[in-house]
Amino acid sequence: MINPLPAIFISHGAPDLPIRGGEVSDFLRSLHRQFPKPKAILVVSAHWHSDPIMVSAAKFPKTIYDFSGFSEQLYQLSYPARGIPELSDRIVDLLGRSGIPCNIHPTRGLDHGAWTPLILTYPEADIPVTQLSIEYQNDPLYHWQVGQALEPLRHEGVLILGSGGITHNLYAFNVNYDATPLDWVQEFDMWIAKTIAEGSWDDLINYRRLAPYASKNHPTDEHLLPLFVALGAGGANVKGMQLHSSYAFGAFSMAAYAFASGT
């Protein structure tokens, strides 16, 4: 057993994150300094959906370019981290003990929700990585329970990294990266920050009913669901801490949070 790592949630924004400068890139490049180097990384990405949830057992996960229309420079990047099939077996076992079915995908690679932040935070790609899907037709409570089941991994040197977006309405996207964030984006973002700071987990799980402009910021749930996995993985008496706050394209909160057990 080692001192447990926190569970992390980051907002990954647009796929061109690795080739942009600015606050978010600087934050991600410095994130590794805030806790010990993991033995392995489990990414829960908003961009892999399945029913039931799945975990990849790829030995050498490919870099997936699940986007189009970006600079050719982006398609030249790759993230050649090796996989860790034995972690996939451990995940299936942990989820099964909690009555949560999970299938293994033998070859699934890393989508941009996984590799675009990792190429900034761990550019050497020297930590084995696997990826877990979300079941986006299921609710935040279910994904919180998934996180709870996976909490022992934090004590085994595994970084659980939820990757999505605190806000995500593509219809409000502004082509100007530095556009002033919309009022309703800021109001929702501040509600999330306040709710996490206060530890009001029931309110957070019921965000769609309680948060201002919830459906406007999240026409669908998938980009917020990895947050609840990270929350659940934080453990008993979990505390949340904001690691970063900024905005992009007028519609995206790029906030990031850490979750770990309190004393």
TrEMBL record:
Domain of life, source organism: Bacteria
SUPFAM superfamilies attached to this UniProt entry: LigB-like
This protein's UniProt keywords: Dioxygenase, Metal-binding, Oxidoreductase, Zinc
Gene3D superfamilies on file: LigB-like
Record bears the keyword Metal-binding: yes
Protein EC: 1.13.-.-
Family of this protein: Belongs to the DODA-type extradiol aromatic ring-opening dioxygenase family.
Protein name: Class III extradiol ring-cleavage dioxygenase
Organism encoding this protein: Pseudanabaena catenata USMAC16
